[in-house]
Design a protein that fits this description.
single chain, about 400 residues, alpha+beta, Serine Threonine Protein Phosphatase 5, Tetratricopeptide repeat, Immunoglobulin-like, 2 domains, 6-stranded antiparallel sheet, 3-stranded mixed sheet, 11 helices
């Protein structure tokens, strides 16, 4: 998010920031694995980290969306390092298995590869990381020419191009994805952000129209609120900027860096208003944020009698939903421990694996369940699994029977 930083940054301080940033990401993953945060919070935080990384990388090259007031993101070195590694891991996973399918198991069994260790080295330790990413993205682009209906492929390609600052190509990839998931607010926000970057940071015109559409669908979309506030700030519409940024601040943890950054942005806009002799609008403490209808499906998972002796209370149960037709990427996932059967579950759009792939975009889905001895999201021989027939979204009495063993 937008913050003040000095013109020069000490290199040792940058290295410290890298370690702090890396620790924050590790803590986020750990909290999700330990069920101390829910999938919705995880995804919102991950989206904001991804957005900050992208913004920082582009600002380091001078072509990002930035307030013309000396406000800019922090931790640029951390962003460059992670910005190279994150798309490398994502693209490598996609190329090896055909889709982000670690939950569903729709890939062949393979030996451990660099995808399992990609997060360990840094770009500084491996200076050719950027070239490797470029090569993998080129391979993915060639693959998409042969699979033009692969939605998650276009999403991944668009985001990879965006990380690489190849904005025109990112726009083209997102435009391939847009008709496949009409009305998806996160994809609209990604598209608008990329359009603005390609235009030198200008949000006027098509970018702001998509941002406004996204907020009409989801008034709590973090990226759209951030961009909308930036747009109004740049136009001198400080009251509107304050309104959007205050909403965003209420959506993130009060003690987070994001909340601190938004407080700084709001303070800057308030200062501009006072300089114009205008009153600062009072902040509402009672009006709730707009809510968005939640797409969900719920029911219970049972274990076949013949497999009861193969499951224990320490095993991990994964439950996932995927589209009945089209891409097989999970639309929502849930992980839990089960000591008694049947196990009740509820999947909703806050549990999406990727923001642009949501239950809300599909009327019919297939729900699967898998018991893992290791707790690994990747299916392994000996795991127990079961799948539902095609069901309609909104079903609240779905029953899944785990009745098969992964060979």
């Amino acid at each position: 998010l937008l913050r003040r930083v000095p013109a020069k940054v000490n290199i040792d301080h940058d290295r410290l920031n890298i370690e702090i940033y890396r620790d924050q990401l590790a803590d986020l993953d750990k909290d999700l694995a330990n069920n101390t945060i829910d999938r919705g919070y995880y995804e919102r935080t991950y989206q904001e980290i991804e957005r900050r990384l992208l913004q920082d990388i582009d600002l380091a090259k001078g072509d990002g969306v930035v307030l013309q007031t000396g406000l800019s993101p922090t931790n640029r070195v951390a962003a460059v390092t992670l910005g190279l590694l994150l798309p490398a891991m994502a693209v490598l996973m996609y190329q090896q298995w055909g889709a982000p399918a670690a939950i569903t198991g729709d890939f062949p069994k393979v030996a451990a590869t660099s995808s399992e260790t990609a997060a360990e080295p840094t770009a500084a330790e491996h200076p050719d990381t950027g070239q490797q990413v470029e090569a993998m993205v080129a391979e993915l682009a060639a693959r998409m020419e042969q699979n033009p209906n692969d939605l998650e492929g276009w999403l991944m390609l668009g985001r990879s191009y965006r990380f690489l600052r190849r904005h025109a190509e990112a726009i083209s990839a997102f435009e391939k994805a847009l008709p496949m998931v009409e009305g998806n607010p996160q994809l609209m926000a990604d598209y608008a952000d990329t359009l603005a970057m390609a235009a030198g940071g200008v949000l006027e015109g098509k970018p702001i129209r998509y941002i406004q559409k996204a907020l009409e669908i989801d008034p709590t979309n973090i990226q759209s609120l951030w961009l909308s506030g930036t747009y109004h700030f740049e136009k001198g519409e400080y009251e509107k900027a304050i309104e959007q940024w205050r909403k965003l601040k209420r959506l993130v943890p009060a003690d987070s860096q994001d909340a601190e950054a938004m407080a700084g942005n709001v303070a800057e806009a308030e200062l501009r208003l006072r300089e114009q002799g205008k009153a600062v609008p009072a902040e509402s403490t009672s009006a709730p944020l707009p809510t968005v209808a939640t797409a969900k499906i719920s029911g219970k998972v049972t274990l076949a009698a013949t497999l009861l002796d193969k499951a224990g209370p320490e095993d991990t149960l994964f439950i996932f939903a995927r589209a009945a037709e089209g891409p097989r990427m999970p639309l929502a996932t849930l992980r839990k421990k089960v000591s008694q059967w049947p196990a009740e579950f509820s999947l909703d759009e806050s549990m999406s694996v990727m923001p642009a792939m949501s239950l809300a975009n599909h009327k019919a889905v297939v729900v699967g369940a898998r018991i893992s001895k290791s707790g690994n999201a990747m299916p392994q021989s000996g795991d127990l699994e079961g799948t539902s027939p095609v069901v309609q979204l909104g079903d609240s009495q779905l029953e899944i029977v785990i009745d098969a063993v992964v060979p």
